[in-house]
Amino acid sequence: MLWLHSDMKRCFQGEDVFQEIFAREGKVVRHKEGRKTFRFEFEGKAYYAKAHAGIGWSEIFKNLLTCKWPVIDASNEWHAIRRLNQVGVPTAELVGYGARGWNPARRQSFVLMRELKEQVELEAFFLHMGGLKGRRRMALKRQLIQKVAEMTRHLHGAGINHRDLYLCHYQIEDRDWEQWSAEQPVKVVLLDLHRAQKRSTVPRRWLIKDLGALLYSSMDKGGNNGDILTFVEAYSGSTGREFLSTHRELCRKVIARAQAFCVKHHGARLDRPGSIIKI
Question: Which of 11, 98, 112, 211 could pair with 42 in a Cys bridge, judged by C-beta atoms 3.0 to 4.6 Å apart?
Answer without folding.
Answer: 11
